[in-house]
Amino acid sequence: MASLTTQFFGIELKSPVVAASCSLTGNIEQIENLAKAGAGAIVLKSLFEEEIDAQLQEELSERKALEPDPEYMDYFDYIIKDENLKNYTNLIKQAKQAVDVPVIASVSCISASDWVVFSRKLEEAGADALELNLFLLPADISRDSAANEQFYFNAITKVLENVGIPVTIKISHYFSNLGQMIQKLSKTGIAGITLFNRFYAPDIDILNEQVVTADVLSQVSDYQMPLRWIGLMADQVDCPLAATTGVHTAETAIKMLLAGAGVVQVASVLYQEGPDYIAKMNEQIKSWMDKKGYDRINDFKGKLANKKKDVVIYERAQFMKYFGGKSYS
Amino acid sequence: MYQIVQKEQFSENVVKLVVHAPRIARSRKPGHFIILRIDEKGERIPLTIAEANIEAGTITLVVQNVGVSSKRLCAMNVGDQILDLVGPLGKATHISEVGTVLACGGGVGIAPLLPIVEGFKKAGNRVVTVLAARTKELIILEKEIRQWSDEVIIMTDDGSYGTKGLVTQGAEEIIKREKVDECVTIGPAVMMKFVALLTQKYEIPTQASLNAIMVDGTGMCGACRASVGGQTKFTCIDGPEFNAHQIDFDELILRLGGYKAEEKQAWERANS
Amino acid sequence: MKEYLKIERDQEWRDQLRKKIKNKERTTQERVSMTSLDPMERIKYQDREVNLGLNMEQAQREASRCMDCVNPTCIEGCPVSINIPKFIKNIERGEVLEAAKTLKETSALPAVCGRVCPQEKQCEAQCFYTLKLKKEPVAIGYLERFAADFEQQSGAVSVPETAPKKQVKVAAIGSGPASLSFAGDMIKLGYDVTVFEALHEVGGVLKYGIPEFRLPNHVVDVELESLAKMGVKFERNFIVGRTASFDDLKAEGYQAFFVASGAGLPRFMNIPGENYNGILSSNEYLTRVNLMNAAKEEFDTPVLKGQNVAVIGGGNTAMDSVRTAKRLGAERAMIIYRRSREEMPARVEEVLHAEEEGIEFLNLNNPVEYFADENGRVSKMRVQRMELGEPDASGRRRPVVVEGSEYDIPVDVVVVAIGVSPNPLVPSELPELKVSRWGTIEVDPETMQSSKPELFAGGDIVRGGATVILAMGDGRKAAAGMHKYLSQKNETAAN
């Protein structure tokens, strides 16, 4: 029988299917279900810097009837941070007690500010590794790309200074030179890079002519973007890669592993199919491996990566003559 | 004003005082402490309540002469009045029927241990108590402890009484001998640290009662903060008892020395 | 209210006073300036008041600047609605004791408020001079203090009239400004009022918090005596819920409670190294010095005297702490505040006084970590520079980190003065009481009644943090609310 053991987050995982950070992984009951289903690791729901700020703003605007002394509200962000941090460390502790698979803390930050040092508390609470969900929407036209890139390196340096557990990062594809950026990031001492995170996206409702929230779940075909970049970069980085966004089936997971990913992180499909779906994915990966005669993940991991640049399709950008013979007539 | 109605000199530096404080005698529970101030110039001294007598309206305190104010308190006599006394403070010990309880007390820590031992015994537990001190005369309240313990083991550093050795040696013997369901420890911070390490090895839930520096005792000053499970807690309102396996004892020990230089100066002034 | 103000304003003496000086003449006078002790001299003493007060001539001249407006907007700026023109005009005509009496109609602590209220944000901000003339406002705060002090010094302290005793017992929990103001109103209404205080001294923050160089203890004591003369009883060393339970007190006849137990818990930033020795809350620092007299050798309580003292925060508590540090002999006493001077919540006068005393202001700086020597005593702090970004929901510009701007400052004492959280002691004894997620007691903002009908609350325990005057306002509202509640209840019981 094939073994699904693989490496990511600087630790050995018993399956390459990891429960990605999502609201399911913020609930202890679901965390237990995911572990039972055979998740290789559980990345807890992110501690969001943005959310903490939103809570502060709400608190500031709510306090009107019995207005407090301005001194009281002056450092109120620390109270909110503290409360969030307490809840989060409790979640880590509970999860660690409830399950025996690795529990990964996740921090989602939009600034490399002082609070990154709070990562130490997550380590103390018992997290096995830390995933930094770094995101800066490059829409601030007053900042150049060098400044934007520097934010990532600052945040990583600061966190690595503060914790001893492995640190991985999850990034978006919004970089002007994505390949070089991924390579540079892989050399910072981190234990892995996850490509790519998915964001809350806008959409437009043409009936009411309003900007609305786009579909929150990923689509089956969304996997193509991470697949290309895993394939392109797997042999050019100094740390393992993980794939996420659009991994909805065992088949896609296998593709990612073949392209060079160490693990896949799944979320959307868990909402659609339930936590037990991980067990099914594990089974299907195993039976594919058995069929192909692979004993271990490493036997085929990266087999179709862009080694020596011979798999040119990863680099091809234009359809060229692909649609040449087709027409709508 | 709170009158001292009885005094007993346990040893050169340890004194038992019985003080008239009827409301507190009625409302206190095991684990509670009080804060007193002898006179206008005194410090506010936190002291755990060792015993209470509702009919007589008294509480029993055990004081160790460690600083300027406690020295003056130790020198007070029957009939003297303590200017201020407030309590009961802190959270009461969580006492339930768990099976066998191992109680480890060291030095003046034996005093606050007494009501807890009594509580556990009354709740239907088997209680084995290990009392430890440097030397024989520092083993206090032995008779009272025996009254509520199924077995008492005495350990002294110099072997002048009971068995020669540390509290942890006595405790480990019990743990190896029988199943212990819960452990309570009160004493010097270093002692509690090693008791905690021991019971952690055997996975026995353990409560330790901290004696931190305090001013008001009601949560206001924050001098008594301690790190427990990675979070800052206030000993006076969140404690004084915490899960011993989560307490950062090294930080506690450093913090207890926070005013050492100032206290030394005051001591020298008072004794010059 | 409006009618009462009109009747008072229409009194003949007020009318004549208005005619005595032309408005034009009134408005051309300069605002009085307060004389104060020399900065280099005053930093040698913890207990010498900085402001010396006005003399009779200064006070009358300043009082004459007030135009006795038809629509006195200043009153709207006062949380306890003092009849400001009436007391000021009494000063102008030389009836200072009458002025003091006017203050006491609505304020239990005029000598205190005259010293610690942020007048520039309240009454003086609503003064006709500020609003319409764009000139310096009438010095209402100075005049309030003048009248209250005058009365205290005259020995003829007036004891407000009280209604016939009702034989109805009520309790106030805590003895700070909210409670004292509540007690003052309730005793006037004829209730049997007992104030319970956990500490050994009555006065709450006025005693343990605000230093004597800003608010001398004797000033507070006179106000306390005046309440005692009216019949208010004080129980020290008594924690309601602990020393005796609420049920015990009900059994002893207490029919209603006003909880004003204050903001007990000092907040920390939870940054690395914050538990090192030498890092303490402003509550601890100020309590040791103010309540325990730690600065005086003959008292047993010690206090840390640092050479390089950093105080974190920009409020009045931070100013009190840093100025205390200076008085304890610090060579370098610094304010570390992450916003700029303009955003500091402290009273303008305190900031000015601090500056005169040689306090360093490190604005737009914020600590991120502390380091200690081998004994665990803080030796340096790492701070980060900040800049101001977009305004937040309260309208103040938010501090934003300047990345990579960290540097170290040597320190041996750090006082954290970033605010306090509500004291959980009382709420924890009443599990059915409705409290917010931050631990404040939820009340009806009009009556200050909590989810338990017999329990009212005000001050810090309701607002999280309140100024002295806001707390006093709460006390007054709660007294009115409780009076109504008890009257109805006892009427129903009688029928």
TrEMBL record, chain A:
It comes from the Bacteria. Its cofactor is FMN. The keyword Ribosomal protein does not apply. InterPro entries: Aldolase_TIM, DHO_dehydrogenase, Dihydroorotate_DH_1_2, Dihydroorotate_DH_cat. Pathway: Pyrimidine metabolism; UMP biosynthesis via de novo pathway. One of its GO terms (cellular component) is cytoplasm. GO terms for molecular function: dihydroorotate dehydrogenase activity. Keywords: Flavoprotein, FMN, Oxidoreductase, Pyrimidine biosynthesis. Residues 93-289 form the Dihydroorotate dehydrogenase catalytic domain. GO terms for biological process: 'de novo' pyrimidine nucleobase biosynthetic process; 'de novo' UMP biosynthetic process. Pfam families: DHO_dh (PF01180). PANTHER family: DIHYDROOROTATE DEHYDROGENASE (QUINONE), MITOCHONDRIAL-RELATED, SLL0744 PROTEIN. This is Dihydroorotate dehydrogenase (Fumarate).
TrEMBL record, chain B:
The lineage of its organism: Bacteria, Pseudomonadati, Bacteroidota, Bacteroidia, Marinilabiliales. It holds the Pfam family DHODB_Fe-S_bind. The keyword Ribonucleoprotein does not apply. It comes from Sunxiuqinia elliptica. InterPro entries: Cbr1-like_FAD-bd_dom (IPR008333), Cyt_c3_hydrogenase_gsu (IPR012165), Dihydroorotate_DH_Fe-S-bd (IPR019480), FAD-bd_FR_type (IPR017927), FNR_nucleotide-bd (IPR039261), PyrK_electron_transfer (IPR050353), Riboflavin_synthase-like_b-brl (IPR017938). This is Ferredoxin--NADP+ reductase. FAD binds at V62, V63, Q64. Gene3D superfamilies: Nucleotide-binding domain of ferredoxin-NADP reductase (FNR) module, Translation factors. Signal peptide: none annotated. One of its GO terms (biological process) is pyrimidine nucleotide biosynthetic process. Its cofactor is FAD; [2Fe-2S] cluster. Residues 1-95 form the FAD-binding FR-type domain. The keyword Iron applies. Binds 1 FAD per subunit. One of its GO terms (molecular function) is flavin adenine dinucleotide binding. CDD domains: DHOD_e_trans_like1. It comes from the Bacteria. Keywords: 2Fe-2S, FAD, Flavoprotein, Iron, Iron-sulfur, Metal-binding. [2Fe-2S] cluster binds at C221, C224, C236.
Automatic annotation (TrEMBL), chain C:
Gene3D superfamilies: Alpha-helical ferredoxin, FAD/NAD(P)-binding domain. Residues 48-154 form the Dihydroprymidine dehydrogenase domain. InterPro entries: DPD_II, FAD/NAD-bd_sf, FAD/NAD-binding_dom, Helical_ferredxn, SudA-like. It comes from the Bacteria. Residues 169-475 form the FAD/NAD(P)-binding domain. GO terms for molecular function: iron-sulfur cluster binding; oxidoreductase activity. PANTHER family: GLUTAMATE SYNTHASE [NADPH] SMALL CHAIN, GLUTAMATE SYNTHASE [NADPH] SMALL CHAIN-RELATED. This is Glutamate synthase (NADPH/NADH) small chain. The lineage of its organism: Bacteria, Pseudomonadati, Bacteroidota, Bacteroidia, Marinilabiliales.
